[in-house]
UniProtKB/TrEMBL annotation, chain A:
The keyword Phosphoprotein applies. This is Response regulator receiver protein. The modification 4-aspartylphosphate is found at residue 62. Keywords: Phosphoprotein. Residues 13-129 form the Response regulatory domain. It comes from the Bacteria. It holds the Pfam family Response_reg. The keyword Metal-binding does not apply. It comes from Hirschia baltica (strain ATCC 49814 / DSM 5838 / IFAM 1418). GO terms for biological process: phosphorelay signal transduction system.
From TrEMBL, chain B:
It comes from Hirschia baltica (strain ATCC 49814 / DSM 5838 / IFAM 1418). The keyword Nucleotide-binding applies. This is Chemotaxis protein CheA. One of its GO terms (cellular component) is cytoplasm. The modification Phosphohistidine is found at residue 47. InterPro entries: Bact_Chemotaxis_CheA, CheA-like_dim, CheA-like_homodim_sf, CheW-like_dom_sf, CheW-lke_dom, HATPase_C_sf, HATPase_dom, His_kinase_dom. PANTHER family: CHEMOTAXIS PROTEIN CHEA, SENSOR HISTIDINE KINASE CHEA.
UniProtKB/TrEMBL annotation, chain C:
Residues 1-11 have a biased composition (Polar residues). GO terms for biological process: chemotaxis; signal transduction. Pfam families: CheW. Residues 24-164 form the CheW-like domain. PANTHER family: CHEMOTAXIS PROTEIN CHEW (PTHR22617:SF23), CHEMOTAXIS SENSOR HISTIDINE KINASE-RELATED (PTHR22617). GO terms for cellular component: cytosol. The lineage of its organism: Bacteria, Pseudomonadati, Pseudomonadota, Alphaproteobacteria, Hyphomonadales. SMART domains: CheW. Residues 1-25 are annotated as: Disordered. PROSITE patterns: CHEW (PS50851). Gene3D superfamilies: CheA-289, Domain 4, SH3 Domains. This is CheW protein. Signal peptide: none annotated.
Length: 130, 693, 175
């Protein structure tokens, strides 16, 4: 992975974490089209590896993933100094209070409900990330 | 959602993998004591399918997947116990899921009630009522009246701890209407007492908009537990000042009590019952980029080699060896990288046993399918592109090839017919064979049909190969009625075209009464071409090796002039039309000496016709990296693409089929202009008839 | 690809050619024979010296052939010939301007590159009606730079016209 640390880029860098390639593709596509730089990870472990390599402006993560799930990932990221103020959005499939609460408790900034269309994704992103 | 349609294929590929995983895992289920990771995997598989299905609006699939997911969620949460027939039920529910996915993929409507039985059984095991998916209620303003809102917003420190930013929220509010923001800094303490993590600001916001209160609370959706929020509304008319007070009174204590983590994400690394094979998912695009880069590397290395090797003499043995070493390693790298795209052909073959079983039943024939060489590795694209042609050929075998059991017995064969599908690598090519022990081609019928279609005339002499090649003509079919099994209009000509597009060839070997065997010869890799470098009139071209049958250096006596100005070659009793490459490419021989004896490269065209391309010299075989002309220019008739050779020059790769139908300009040095035009017209007339005599 | 396909592809590209310009733009100017032309610097990818070109069969005269640019195969257009004059007789001193138009990279054969011009929109004058010698659609305007008239090239139209000409049966004689 070519992540250049310390370089002041104008575009925002987003980490997209989901074990579903389809989801990753769709989210990446939507974000890249808006000028974001996207780094993908297929589960929490990979996301952790990737997190140490660069500066991120936003993290979008699914909850249900093998090896390390999104809630655990969120908790761990929040404990890292460089992610303390990074917006983290979790992807949920229901407008279900318990899942959202779990996310918030872990430190997530907000959530995106699947399925979503590109505009919905972008409007949530705008609310948490410049 | 049109934006996401391009990911449909990825989604269905993923579904395939997920369903396979589901099936594999489900077969290891026990009535009780199942490993939590097993249950998690089942849940996640269905969960992912549901999420994607939602994105593509496949409602029926979503509804079913949702119930199944919910069921599995409860199982993994120990809220439902699987009983004796639990495992079997889950396997069955996986089958139903697969059917729904397949139907969604093909766009067909699945039969009514397909899932109802399974769902019913799932519900019976589930003490709670199934949770319905309730779409978030969208409350619209009855009339879009402009309302003036007064919003009081005071965030707690917990809001900042989750990286929410007031400014972004205000920006979102400003999208709803006209906004005025006033900050209240009265609570800020002096610097020495300041806690940087504490929240001291609050804001009063005036919003003038035709949105509803719900629209406003939606903006604050993420932070409603982490702030104090009050919204007052006044309609502009002021006739009735409505006061809607909405406040969130939770103090800034983190809601520890609400820690319901759904599902067990117990140990991140768990011992798996089934060992995972060491493999990773890689973007095909990345692989393609890598393949391209290595292709460039090969070219660069060849160029470097060429420029250096001319300077080096035998004396510099060490340098020569170093160069050879470099060449070898570059080739190895190339082979290694090409190999990444390779997959076992099993992926392609795996669907056929079921097809044969289904067709056996449908056609009331007894047929067994034998697969050989499933482990043979081929380029991923080949697997994708061959799926349809092979399906078509196997259907053909079953429909037209294999006889009814009674007929077989009468013919002295055993009642059960055999269809054999095999793959092997040989001489840098992949050979795939589809054969059956059925009735084989009846030459007389084929000839009769061909005469009927005007493809040949009565009394024409045809070799065995000619007859076998007939069936690849468009529209050719000896079946008197087109059965719905093999389909209408998808002929062997389409199959052949598809194979040729991959750079391959297809031939048929058939014996009446004994059976038929189709052989597909395909190149191992697609970005690289084995070519024969030829020269004519000072220019060089590449002819794909896969099209070349042989090269001959004909004696003048073997070449006959035709009245239309063209030439034909007499070779072992066959008449082969000659195509002057120099003329087709519009080259001039002015100032160049013509070689005494020219060469004819005999190639096979689309229709199995053999044609001889006349060139001056053969310069040897070369493996080249194909560069499409379409990237920066357009397709040119007679040219399949371009290649960069070791000397850095670009050479054109000939499109044999296109070349043969082109009207070459006869070399003006041999005719006078009047004759040339006459000859050209004649040639054109012949070309359109597709024959040469 | 067949001709109508090509035409529709390119006419779409041409439609997008007209845009509303704002701040001063930079142009690369070059000479072709006695005349001087310029293209938007944003289209220019690089400048290259003359190199071996592989000719393409049965193409209009001004399509000199293709070139290998670090692994990419690009067509080379003889600008002088394309604009209606004689073919260039290329030497080592000639120059190829590699431009990018709608994701295609193409090389323009010119005599020499002159300068980089910074031009305000109001300095660009429209193409005069009387200029019959050259194909008027191919220019977006012209300006005067140090007593020299510089014609601004519309690269997209330069190629769209080419497509209309390129028709399988209309093959110019080579000799």
């Amino acid at each position: 992975m070519l992540l250049i640390d310390g370089e002041m880029e104008m575009s925002k860098r987003v980490m997209v974490v989901d074990d579903s390639k389809t989801m990753r593709d769709m989210v990446s596509f939507t974000l890249k089209r808006e000028g974001y730089e996207v780094v993908e990870a297929e589960d929490g472990i990979r996301a952790t590896e990737v997190s140490g390599v660069g500066i991120f402006d936003l993290v979008i993560t699914d909850v249900n993933m093998p090896r390390k799930d999104g809630i655990t990932l969120t908790k761990e990221l929040r404990m890292k100094p460089q992610f303390r103020s990074t917006p983290i959005l979790i992807l949920t499939t229901e407008a279900d209070a318990t899942k959202k609460a779990a996310g918030k408790a872990a430190g997530a900034t907000g959530w995106i409900v699947k399925p979503f269309d590109p505009d919905q994704l972008l409007s949530v992103v705008k609310r948490v990330c410049r | 959602m049109n934006d996401f349609e391009q990911f449909r294929q990825t989604f269905f590929e993923e579904c395939d993998e997920l369903l396979q995983r589901f099936e594999d895992v489900a077969t290891t289920l026990q009535p009780e004591g199942n490993d939590s990771e097993t249950l998690n995997e089942l849940f996640r598989a269905v969960h992912s399918i549901k999420a994607g299905a939602g994105a593509f609006k496949l409602d029926r699939l979503v509804v079913y997947a949702h119930e199944l997911e919910d069921f599995l969620d409860q199982v993994r949460g120990d809220l439902i116990g699987l009983q004796a027939d639990g495992p079997a039920l889950i396997i069955q529910s996986g089958d139903v899921l697969r059917e729904l996915v397949e139907n969604a993929q093909s766009g067909q409507e699945a039969p009514d009630g397909l899932e109802s039985v399974t769902l019913e059984k799932l519900r019976q095991l589930n003490p709670k009522k199934a949770i319905e998916v309730t779409p978030v209620a969208v409350v619209e303003n009855a009339e879009a009246t402009r309302t003036s809102y007064e919003i009081y917003f005071r965030p707690f420190r917990s809001m900042y701890e989750t990286a929410n930013e007031p400014q972004l929220l205000f920006e979102a509010l400003s999208d709803l209407g006209d906004i005025n923001i006033h900050i209240d800094t009265s609570k800020v303490v002096e610097l020495s007492k300041l806690d940087p993590m504490e929240s001291y600001f609050s804001w009063n916001i005036e919003l003038c908009s035709d949105c509803s209160v719900e629209d406003i609370t939606a903006v604050f959706e993420f932070v409603e537990d982490d702030c104090e929020l009050t919204i007052k509304a006044k309609t502009i008319s002021e006739a009735d000042a409505e006061e809607i007070v909405k406040s969130s009174s939770v103090d800034d204590k983190s809601p520890d009590g609400a820690q319901v983590i759904v599902g067990k994400s117990a140990k991140p690394e768990t011992e798996r019952a089934k060992p995972q094979l060491g493999s990773i998912r890689v973007d095909l695009e990345k692989v393609d980029q890598l393949v391209n880069m290595v292709g460039e590397l090969v070219i660069a290395q060849a160029m470097a080699l060429e420029s250096i090797s001319s300077e080096i003499g035998i004396a510099q043995v060490n340098q020569l060896q170093a160069l050879e070493d470099l060449t070898m390693r570059t080739r190895q790298l190339q082979e290694g990288v090409m190999a990444i795209r390779m997959q076992p052909i099993k992926a392609l073959f795996s669907r056929f046993p079921r097809l044969v079983r289904d067709l056996s039943t449908k056609l009331e024939k007894d047929v067994t399918l034998i697969l050989e060489g499933e482990a043979t590795e081929v380029d991923k694209t080949i697997i994708e592109e061959l799926s349809d042609p092979l399906t078509h050929m196997i259907r053909n075998c079953m429909d037209h090839g294999i006889e009814m059991p009674e007929d077989r017995v009468q013919a002295g064969k055993k009642a059960q017919g055999t269809v054999r599908l095999s793959a092997e690598q040989r001489n840098g090519r992949i050979l795939i064979r589809v054969s059956d022990d059925g009735r084989g081609l009846d030459p007389d019928k084929v000839v009769a049909r061909a005469i009927q279609q005007g493809l040949i005339a009565e009394g024409d002499e045809l070799t065995k190969e000619d007859i076998e090649m007939m069936i690849f003509r468009p529209g050719f079919s000896t079946a008197s009625a087109v059965s719905d099994v093999s389909g209408r209009g998808v002929g062997m000509d389409v199959v052949r075209r598809n194979i040729q597009k991959l750079g391959g060839r297809i031939t048929l070997d058939s014996k009446k009464g004994h059976g038929s065997c189709f052989t597909l010869a395909l190149p191992l890799t697609l970005a690289v071409l084995d070519g024969m470098l030829v020269a004519t009139a000072g220019e060089r071209y590449v002819i794909p090796l896969s099209s070349i049958v042989e090269t001959v250096c004909p004696a003048p006596s073997q070449i006959k002039q035709m009245p239309d100005g063209g030439q034909v070659l007499s070779l072992r009793g066959n008449t082969i039309r000659l195509v002057d490459l120099c003329g087709c490419m519009g080259l001039s021989r002015k100032g160049l000496t013509e070689p005494l004896r020219k060469l004819a490269v005999i190639v096979e065209t689309e229709f199995g016709r053999q044609v001889g391309i006349v060139v001056d010299e053969l310069l040897g075989q070369q493996q080249v990296v194909i560069k499409s002309l379409e990237t920066n220019y357009y397709n040119i008739p007679g040219v399949a693409g371009s290649a960069i050779l070791g000397d850095g020059r670009v050479r054109l790769i000939l499109d044999v089929d296109g070349l043969v139908t082109m009207t070459p300009k006869p070399s003006l040095s041999n005719f006078d202009k009047g004759q040339a035009i006459e000859a050209e017209n004649q040639f054109q007339a012949n070309a359109t008839r597709g024959q040469s005599r | 690809m067949n001709q109508s396909q090509m035409e529709s592809d390119f006419s779409q590209d041409a439609d997008r050619a007209t845009e509303a310009p704002s701040p001063p733009r930079q142009y690369v100017s070059f000479t072709v024979g006695d005349a001087c032309y310029a293209v938007d610097i944003m289209s220019v990818r690089e400048i290259k010296g003359w190199a071996d070109i592989t000719s393409l069969p049965n193409q209009p005269d001004y399509v000199r052939g293709v070139l290998n640019l670090r692994g990419a195969v690009l067509p080379i257009i003889d600008l002088k010939c394309r604009l209606g004059e004689t073919m260039t007789d290329p030497t080592q001193r000639h120059v190829i301007v590699i431009v990018s138009i709608n994701e295609r990279q193409i090389g323009l054969l010119v005599d020499a590159v002159s300068d980089i011009l910074i031009v305000e929109d109001d300095q660009i004058k429209p193409v005069p009606e009387t200029n019959v010698k050259k194909d008027a659609d191919v220019f977006t305007g012209f300006l005067t730079e140090k007593d020299q008239m510089v014609a601004m090239l519309d690269l997209e139209n330069l190629l769209v016209s080419q497509i209309r000409e390129f028709d399988g049966s209309d093959i110019p004689t080579n000799q």
